[in-house]
Amino acid sequence: SWSALGHSYRPKALYYETRKLFGDVLISMYQNGTDYEVFVISDKHTNEQGVFRMTLRNTKGDTLLHKQNTLIIGANSSVIHARLHENELRGLPRNELYLSCSITDEKGNTIARNQYFFVKPKELVLHEPGITMELSKEKDTISITTRHFVKDFYLFSDLQDLGLSDNFINIEPGQTIKLRIGIKPKQLSDLKYFSLYHSRVSK
Fold first, then answer.
1. What's the DSSP call for residue 37?
2. Largest interatomic CA distance in the chain
3. What is each CA distance from 128 to 37, 59, 100, 149, 197, in whole angstroms?
4. CA distance 202 to 51
């Protein structure tokens, strides 16, 4: 169904995605002719400084292009902060690429993050993720890393709703995602996961 919550009030993908859309600072990508424009949008009432990173990668995890600079995020603003030109993609298979953009503060905390895909999800080439998960000693946080790009990672348990801080997420190679768990599992084996890649190989 199109509902954001299941019959037992378990959040679905729509719930998490809608929540992200209401962030104070957003990154949005848009194709305009031969340019891919990266917008930085802020609903904050004050300016904020950050570090902007734009990386073109393939789904295996190779970095093909990287740009970085500092920026002032203007209060109540929507500006084009970066562009990727069509020429920079010449000769590269679009179905293996994604554009990753992020903004971090001076302490390295993520202010905003987003990815842009050059093809539809069903056309995206994905590889066996090589996911590693580690449960904290207190069992209230789980850390997730992956060898290859993972699209729409879904963490769940057959035993109970986990009350996760986030879910249905994209995970990039080398990135460590930490999720808070509201209802603690007894052990790591109680947790299961699924992704777009797994939906294909399970058919």
1. E
2. 52
3. 31, 10, 20, 9, 7
4. 40
Burial class (CB in 10 A: 0-12, 13-18, 19+), 99: buried
- The neighbour count for residue 191, using CB atoms within 10 Å, is 17
Tokens of 103: 């903004």
> Residues with Cβ < 8 Å from 149, sequence gap 6 or more?
57, 58, 59, 60, 61, 98, 126, 127, 129, 170, 171, 172, 173
Q: Which two tokens stand for residue 23?
A: 């962030």
CA 111 – CA 165 distance, rounded (Å):
16
Q: Are 8 and 159 in contact (CB under 8 A)?
A: no
Cα(98)–Cα(120) distance, rounded to whole angstroms? 11
Could you give the CA distance from residue 98 to residue 165 in angstroms, rounded to a whole number?
A: 25
- The answer to whether residue 1 scores a pLDDT higher than 80 is no
DSSP H helices, the chain, are 13-21, 196-201
Would the pLDDT of 203 be above 70? no
Distance of alpha carbon 83 from alpha carbon 118, whole angstroms: 14
- Tens digit of pLDDT for each residue in 120-173? 999 999 999 999 999 888 778 999 999 999 999 999 988 777 889 999 999 999
* CB distance 28 to 39 below 8 Å: yes
